[in-house]
From TrEMBL:
Predominant place of localization: membrane
Record localization: Cell membrane
Protein name: Uncharacterized protein
Source species taxonomy: Bacteria, Pseudomonadati, Bacteroidota, Flavobacteriia, Flavobacteriales
Lineage: superkingdom: Bacteria
Keyword terms, alphabetized: Cell membrane, Membrane, Transmembrane, Transmembrane helix
Organism: Christiangramia flava JLT2011
Domain MacB-like periplasmic core: 26-254
Domain ABC3 transporter permease C-terminal intervals: 295-409
Length: 417
């Protein structure tokens, strides 16, 4: 064990000397490894950051949440002409599912109403994203209120003119004053503020609730009606804990087929969108992005590997005399082999660490220029970068190390003189 520690120490010293004595040659040789590791880890970090941001954007909804719509969240085999004939979800279907699904913890109805301007006295905030939902939505989505309350079931059913504001909308309209009980103008109607959402922060997907406001779905139904292609209704369901998920999905489908009178053998005229399926789809896409990025970055590593091999062949040639002396003094082939392999690995790891440092710098700079989107260089990616560097060094140094270990001591001394 001690001899290998000594080999490692000597190899580290040789590697550092190679960096010092042949700065330009070593720099050019390690540049390939540095660029390769930078490319690979940058791709991994970017994809991981994107995945984290997307998952964070939908994390408010439980992974088991189901959304019924006439649209599909992902790819589907149903032709477009057929999808366009699908009817919208109805309020009556929401009521039916709410009554007939004992395994549902909460069932909510929502409308995709147009964004609007909200006015308070002389102050107006334009382009506010309005969420028209029933009271159960508060139990489905992980909402937190900084002030006031969410509308209750009675207000939801009656379509009461009440509103919950996102923190950004509240700040724009009221500043630091308390908005609870104040009247606003929305869609030409008077609405009363009863709650303010906790500040969330902007996300890459634009799903932050800070710029949103929520009103009862029936309030919006009175204004917009339910004409197809205007408000895009949806039914959101959350199963109870420990419920068999596949059975829950099957029950939803069967209940919807019954209420719509779909005959056995006929296709569904609705989509059961599963958040879990959507996250799996995201995992698949990010996985493909990783593979593509790794393949492209692999070419840079290949060049880097040739650079390491080149510097090791030169190192063997320059130290031929020293190798001969070591072998004549009793150094075994595996000692010489280990010495050059360690040196190759150390050189490659140095190049890799420089690449990781550059990724870290770029991630800090990029995070400053992208607002709330944060590029993350995870410890796992750092480990992967270091491991890949070591493997590249090992592969690149194996042939020069073998050639060094097989040198005849007499010939090596004579050649090096």
């Amino acid at each position: 064990m001690l001899i290998y520690l000594r080999v490692l120490r000597e190899s580290f010293i040789f590697a550092i000397n190679a960096l010092k004595n042949n700065k330009l040659r070593t720099f050019l040789s390690l540049l390939g490894v540095t660029i390769g590791i930078f490319s690979i880890i940058a791709v991994l970090a970017a994809v991981d950051s994107l995945k984290k941001e997307i998952e964070g954007s939908i994390s408010a909804l439980d992974n088991s949440t189901v959304i019924l719509m006439r649209f599909s969240f992902g790819p589907t085999d149903v032709p477009r002409w057929k999808r366009e004939q699908f009817p919208d979800m109805s309020y009556e279907e929401y009521q039916h599912l709410k009554r007939t699904l004992p395994d549902a913890e909460a069932v909510s109805f929502g409308l995709g109403v147009p964004s609007a301007s909200i006015k308070y006295q002389e102050v107006t905030t334009a382009g506010v994203d309005i969420g028209a939902v029933t009271s159960e939505y508060y139990d489905i989505e992980a909402m937190e209120l900084s002030n006031g309350r969410f509308f209750n079931e009675s207000e939801s059913v009656s379509g009461a003119p009440v509103i919950i504001l996102g923190s950004e909308i509240k700040d724009n309209l009221f500043g630091d004053s308390n908005p609870i009980g104040k009247e606003l103008r929305l869609y030409g109607q008077r609405v009363t503020v009863i709650g303010v959402l906790e500040k969330q922060g902007q996300s890459l997907m634009g799903s932050s609730r800070d710029g949103q406001a929520f009103v009862p779905a029936n309030f919006a139904r009175r204004i917009f009606g339910t004409k197809k292609g205007t408000v895009y209704p949806q039914i959101v369901l959350k199963p109870k804990p420990d419920v068999d998920y596949d059975e829950f999905i099957a029950t939803i489908e069967q209940q919807m087929r019954n209420v719509r009178g779909i005959k056995p053998g006929d296709d569904n005229n609705f989509f059961v969108n599963q958040i879990k399926g959507f996250t799996d789809f995201i995992d698949n896409i990010t996985g493909q992005l990783n593979v593509i990025g790794l393949v492209i970055s692999g070419f840079s590593l290949l060049v880097g590997g040739f650079g390491i091999a080149n510097i090791m062949f030169v190192s063997v040639k320059e130290r031929t005399n020293l190798i001969g002396i070591q072998k004549s003094l009793g150094a075994k082939n595996k000692f010489i082999l280990s010495q050059f392999l360690f040196e190759a690995v150390i050189l490659a790891v140095i190049g890799g660490l420089v690449g990781l440092f550059l990724v870290w710098i770029v991630s800090l700079v990029a995070s400053q220029f992208t607002g709330d989107f944060e590029f993350v260089l995870s410890p796992f990616n750092i480990f992967i970068g270091t491991l890949v560097s070591a493997i590249i060094g090992l592969i690149s140094g194996i042939i020069p190390a073998i050639s060094a270990s097989k040198l005849d001591p007499v010939e090596a001394i004579r050649t090096g003189m």
